[in-house]
Amino acid sequence: MRLLIFRVNEEIYNMGTPFFSIIIPVYKVRQDYLEMCVESIRKQSFCNLEVILVDDGSPDNCGAICDEYAKKDARIKVIHQRNQGVSAARNAGIEAAQGEWIMFVDVDDWVAEGSYEKLATHVCNCDYDILMFRLVRVYENQAVALTYPFEPNRIYDTSICEDKEVLYRLAMRTPKSGNSVVYYSVDKVIRREFLNTKKLRYPVGLPKSEDKVFVLQCFEKLRKFCFMDEAYYFYRINVDSVCNRYSGTADMDRLQLARMLLPIANRMDTELGNLKGDKDYSVLTNDCKRFLFGIISD
């Protein structure tokens, strides 16, 4: 196995371009979090990657820290832009990316040692657009590895109606207790060509749940999907993060989200209804309404 990994690593490294592009939006984060995040990637045994740090107009010294990292490591690129939000930052990273595969990392999280080497062996010469893996939620006093509703190492093929329905519903629904959501960005490896060919980008201007909209749009377009039942990502539950802060515009934000999600649900219902020969099919719309009701209640 070790020899196989070495050969994959050697082959990919000699391609002349990065195999992985790791996109990290940076905005008002503690210095030790930023350093822990970047170092967890720099120290990976798999070296053929680029790290794109997108300084989203951070008013502190985050931008300067990013520049220092770029001086120390030629694989690190820095984009400085005015503050536009995480979606615009990720989109800028996608535009700049050169790797065959793209991954997203939040700046207050970190990646398990040896992750990229293992992931490379799975996606090298594969026939799917997205690979998903497990993440661990890290709280102040504990770490929780959540369960996932996928069959490990099975290729979900969207040319099969049942597989398409499973992917659509899991990304749309409200997660059950004890299960991870399916619509995070940070637990996936996504083929760059797929994102560019299908013109898939994050919705700019949506303060929360941008991941859900993005992943649903990806699931609408993908051919094949695979899940690895191995934990590679540590997701820090940070009480100071945007998603954990009260917003006085919450009602308008939810209305904006509903206006994005409901048309996606309607398209999915129409598509699946046609495949099933059921003109009254409305499962995704109902799932969407339950999700929206849940976040309004929260």
Structure description:
The chain contains ten helices and ten strands. Strand 2 (49-56), helix 3 and strand 3 (76-81) form a beta-alpha-beta unit. Helix 6 packs antiparallel against helix 8, helix 6 runs antiparallel to helix 9 and helix 9 (250-276) packs antiparallel against helix 10. With 298 residues, the chain is an alpha/beta fold. The chain is globular. Strands 1, 2, 3, 4, 5, 6, 7, 8, 9 and 10 form a ten-stranded mixed β-sheet that branches. It has helices at 2-13, 31-42, 62-72, 86-96, 115-123, 161-172, 192-197, 210-221, 250-276, 283-297; strands at 20-26, 49-56, 76-81, 101-104, 110-111, 130-138, 143-145, 155-157, 188-191, 224-236. Helix content is 43%, strand content 20%. The termini are far apart.
Strand tally = 10
Estimate what percentage of residues fall within beta strands. Answer: 15-25%
Q: Fraction of residues in helices?
A: 40-55%
**Oligomeric nature of the chains:** single chain
Arithmetic mean of pLDDT: 91
* pLDDT < 50 stretches: 1-9
Shape: globular
Number of helices: 10
How would a textbook summarize the main sheet?
A: 10 strands, mixed
Measure the end-to-end span: 47 Å
Nearest-angstrom radius of gyration? 19 Å
User: What is the ordering of alpha helices and beta strands?
Assistant: HEHEHEHEEHEEEHEHHEHH
Structural class: alpha/beta
